[in-house]
Amino acid sequence: MPTFAPPPPDATGLEVAGYTLRSTIGYGGFSTVKEAVSSSGSTAAVKIVRHAAFDNLPTHERNKQRTRLSHEERIWATMSHENILPLFQVHHASEATYLFTLYCPAGSLFDILKRDGRPALEQTDAGCMFRQVIKGLQYMHDTMGLVHGDVKLENVLVDESGVCRLSDFGLTRPIGGTPCSSDEERERKDEVLERPRGPPKAIGDRSRGRRSGTTALPVHLSLMRRGQSRHRNSAPIPASEMPPSHPDHSFLPGSLPYAAPELLLPRTDVMNGRGTGYLPNPAQDMWALGVLLYTLLTGTYPFKDSFEPRLQMKILRGMYDVPSDIGPQAESVLKGCLEADVRKRWSISMVDDAAWGIGYG
C-alpha cells in the first residue's frame, strides 16, 4: 500500500494549536511567517521555525540557533506592554516551533517609510510614533531591566490601530549581564555588522518637498486607505526576518547604521575603558533610538556610506548633519541620543521628558 508523507509543518490549511495556517507573508533564515486564523475567526501571525532547518548546520552553529530560539521565546514571554509585540502562545511540535503573535497589517516603520513615497514621515506622525517607541523601550529598561539590543525601524511594527510595538528579542539581554565569552562577543559583533545580502533598493521619491493639496492623516490611516496589498512586501514579523532585496545605500536594512560607537571599538579599547563593549547597556539602545528618530524625520540615516569601513569611522567620530527644520525639541533629543560619550548619552527617561515637543516645531 502506498504511504503518505505528512504535510510540512508550515503547510497552508494545517491546523496547529487551534489555528489554521493561511497565506505566507514572510520568510526568515530558518523560519516562515504565516497568517493564522483561530476557531473564533480572529487573525494572528505565526512564526514557524522548522527544526530540520538546523540539521545541516555545524554542531556549534546548530546549538547556537537552538539556544537563540529558546532565549527569545523565554524573554518574549516575560513582557507585557502596549508598545511591545505580544507573544500569544508557543506550540512545540516534533518538526517545528510555532510562535503566535499579533497580526500587524501596516508592517514595520521601515515598510511605512518605503511605501509612503515621501523621504520622511510628517513630523507630527513621526513624533507620535517615536513617543510610542520610547514607552516600549522605557518599559524594557526601567521595568524589566532589559536591553533590547537591536532597535531599528524594521523591529518596530504598527498594528491595525496605529500602535507602534517593539519586536524581535533575539539579542535582548539583562542590563549589566555577565561579560560575553569570546564566541558570544564575536557573534554580537557579527550581528552589529550585519549587511543586506542583495543590491540596493530605493525608498521612493527623495524630494524634501511636501505634497500639496492633501490633508495630513495619521500614518496608519493613510495606509489603510491604500488597501491591503502591503502583504506582498511586508509582514507582521520584523523585516530583518525577510529576505533582503535592494535598498538604497543611504537606507540599508540591517544593524550597522544603528550601531553605537562603543560596539565598534576593538576589545582592547573596551578593556581600557574607552567603551562599554558588548556588555548589555541601555546606552546602546539609546544611540539606536537616536538613529531611528533621525531617519523618521529625514528619510535617511545620520551616518551613511556605501563603503563599510568608512561608515564605521563616521559612527566612531559621531559626526552628522543636524537637520535644520525639525524643531528644538527634536534637535535636543538627537544630540542627547547621538552622544559619542556613553557617560553623557541620554537615558530613556531623559528622552521621554523632552520628546513631547517633537513634531510641533
Automatic annotation (TrEMBL):
Q: Which residues form the Protein kinase domain?
A: 19-357
CC per GO annotation: cytoplasm
- UniProt protein name: Protein kinase domain-containing protein
Question: Tell me, what is an example of a GO biological process annotation in this record?
Answer: microtubule cytoskeleton organization
Which InterPro entries did the record assign? Kinase-like_dom_sf (IPR011009), Prot_kinase_dom (IPR000719), Protein_kinase_ATP_BS (IPR017441), Ser/Thr_kinase_AS (IPR008271)
Q: Where is this region: Disordered?
A: 175-247
Residues spanning the signal sequence: none
Query: Out of the domains of life, which is the source?
Result: Eukaryota
Any Pfam family hit: Pkinase
Residues bound to ATP: K47
One GO molecular function term of this record is: ATP binding
State the UniProt keywords alphabetically.
Answer: ATP-binding, Kinase, Nucleotide-binding, Serine/threonine-protein kinase, Transferase
Composition-biased stretches, type Basic and acidic residues, lie in 183-207
Name the protein family. Belongs to the protein kinase superfamily.
The organism that produces this protein has a lineage beginning with: Eukaryota, Fungi, Dikarya, Basidiomycota, Agaricomycotina
